[in-house]
Amino acid sequence: MKTQTAQRFLFLICINLMFFSCQEPTTHTEPPYEGPPKDNIITVERAREMYDAYAQRRVPIIQKYEDSITADGSKFTPTRYAEYDLATIKQYIAYIEYEAKKAEIDIQTLRFYLSNYPNSDKFPNGDAVKYPRRNSLFVVPTMAYDGKNVGFYLEDIDGVYTAVPINGNGLRDKGENTTPNEPQGSVNEAGFFISTNAATQGMGATSVILNDSSITPPPANGDDFGGGN
């Protein structure tokens, strides 16, 4: 009786091991804790100094220009920060790592582009502009290409899921001037952006650019560094 029980127990263990071994591997795992990023953490005092420098050297210029082009005389308050919740950042990292793995490339860096929403209620494609006139930023992951880091999007080209450089022009042949660790296959180098490119039209292209954060002028009661009206 004990022998039968032991055999059943071992059988269940084997079944469970087979089940878990067949599961898809996760595409994103938390990195081991290794302390703060070397040379990338600044003190609160330095952050305050940099914040104040922007307030003195950039905010008045932005405000003066925006006020000068407003027909109704309304006053413009420049954006001082943008924020994402932590869950969104984690989801974004998992997303771009998953897409990069499908295209068989490595993500090199994340670029944070300063930008501006148009003074309009809608974008040309009809999407609503959440923050007309407001300063913003968007995030572009990069890959290694021709000895440089370049921003990319993803596109199915001749049945091959391909990382496509955003900046550039022309169409290169498969495998031409590529190196290991750089994308293989057809590469369409689109200017940032060429209006006829599939990425700008949303035709079969997959974007990995993050935007639409919560952007905020200084709150009336001040932000972390004392900004406010």
TrEMBL record:
Region spans: Disordered: 209-229
Top-level taxon: Bacteria
Protein name: Lipoprotein
